[in-house]
Specification:
Number of domains: 2
Mean pLDDT: 94
Strand content: 25-35%
Low-confidence stretches: none
Number of helices: 8
CATH class of the largest domain: Alpha Beta
CATH architecture of the largest domain: 3-Layer(aba) Sandwich
Radius of gyration: 19 Å
Length: 288
C-alpha cells in the first residue's frame, strides 16, 4: 500500500475507545481503558485518530495542563499500516491544534525520537523504564509511619506541590488518578513539613508506580516503599529520571531491571521545566 493520502485525521470520539484500546493492547502497551477515558473525556485535551477504511488506524493525544504545557502521547499506528505517513500526519495536525498552548512536550521512545527531532523537538533529559515481573522486595519491618493516605482534604496540598515541581497545573490528572486509585496515593510529612507524594495506577501488564515528587531521595524512597507494600508478588513498572542514580541502584537491588529509555523533549521553548531535581518518577509517557 502506498497511497499516503488515504488516511483522514479527525478528533477522537468516545465511540473510538474500543478501537484505540485494542491498538495499544495489541502493541503490548500498559494503558487501560481508564487511561484512555482520562484523555478522551476532558474537552480541553486534544485527541485525534487517523482513519483508514472506516477504522481507527492510528492515534495521538495531548493532555492540556492549563494552556501552559500540552503533553503529547499515545502516538500509535497500526503495525500493518506503518511507514505510510499516518504518524507524521497525526503529529503535524495535533501540533497545529496546540498553537494556543505555550509549550509542547513529550517522552519519546528511541523509535519515535528521529521523527520528533525532524519536527523540531529538542531533547531535555532521559528517563528509564524499569520493571519487576514479580516484586519480592519485603519492607514489612520498615517504619513508614510518616506516609499518610492522600485524602480529599489534603489533595489540594499535593496539587500545589506538584504545580511547583512539575512546572504546570496538573490538577485534572491528579484528581482522576486519586479518584480511580485512592489506595495507591500517599503523602509524606515530617514535623508539619510536606516532603513529597506518590500516586499510581493499574495497568494491563504492570502495576504502574508514579508520579513521585519529593524534597529528597530519602523521602522518595520512603514513599516508594509504602507503595510496594501492596504490590508484593505483582508485576510493577515505573519510569525514573536517569539522574536519580542512588534510587536506581536501590531499585535494582530490589529486582528491577532497566528495559529502555525515553527522551523527554520539548518543541521550540521550555518555559516550564519545573524543579527537575525533585522529580523522581513520572506519571507515564502519555501524561508527563
Amino acid at each position: 500500500m502506498s497511497d499516503k493520502l488515504s488516511f483522514s485525521i479527525r478528533p477522537m470520539k468516545p465511540g473510538d475507545l474500543g478501537e484505540a484500546f485494542e491498538l495499544s493492547s495489541t502493541e503490548g502497551w500498559n494503558q487501560t481503558e481508564k487511561d484512555w477515558r482520562l484523555l478522551i473525556e476532558n474537552p480541553v485535551n486534544t485527541c485525534l485518530v487517523a482513519e483508514f477504511g472506516n477504522r481507527v488506524a492510528g492515534t495521538a493525544t495531548a493532555i492540556n495542563y492549563s494552556d501552559k504545557v500540552a503533553w503529547i502521547g499515545m502516538v500509535l499506528v497500526d503495525e500493518t499500516l506503518r511507514g505510510q505517513g499516518a504518524g507524521k500526519m497525526l503529529l503535524k495536525e495535533i501540533i497545529g491544534r496546540l498553537e494556543h498552548v505555550e509549550s509542547i512536550k513529550l517522552d519519546a521512545t528511541p523509535a519515535g525520537e528521529p521523527l520528533y527531532k525532524s519536527l523540531g523537538f529538542v531533547t531535555e533529559y532521559s528517563i528509564i523504564r524499569m520493571t519487576n515481573g514479580s516484586l519480592e522486595y519485603d519492607n514489612s519491618n520498615e517504619s513508614t509511619n510518616e506516609s499518610l493516605k492522600i485524602t480529599q482534604n489534603n489533595l489540594h496540598d499535593v496539587i500545589e506541590m506538584d504545580n511547583l515541581i512539575f512546572g504546570a497545573n496538573r490538577s485534572y490528572l491528579l484528581n482522576v488518578l486519586f479518584k480511580n486509585y485512592p489506595e495507591k496515593a500517599f503523602l509524606l510529612g515530617q514535623e508539619n513539613k510536606f516532603l513529597g507524594y506518590i500516586l499510581g495506577r493499574d495497568g494491563t501488564r504492570f502495576n504502574y508506580v508514579g508520579p513521585v515528587n519529593a524534597t529528597s531521595t530519602g523521602s522518595a524512597m520512603i514513599l516508594i516503599k509504602q507503595a510496594f507494600k501492596s504490590l508484593i508478588n505483582k508485576p510493577v513498572a515505573l519510569d525514573i529520571l536517569q539522574d536519580k542514580e542512588e534510587l536506581i541502584m536501590w531499585l535494582e537491588s530490589a529486582g528491577f531491571v532497566k528495559q529502555r529509555h525515553f527522551s523527554r523533549m520539548y518543541l521550540k521553548i521550555n518555559p516550564y521545566p519545573g524543579i527537575v531535581k525533585n522529580q523522581y518518577l513520572i506519571s507515564g509517557p502519555e501524561f508527563g
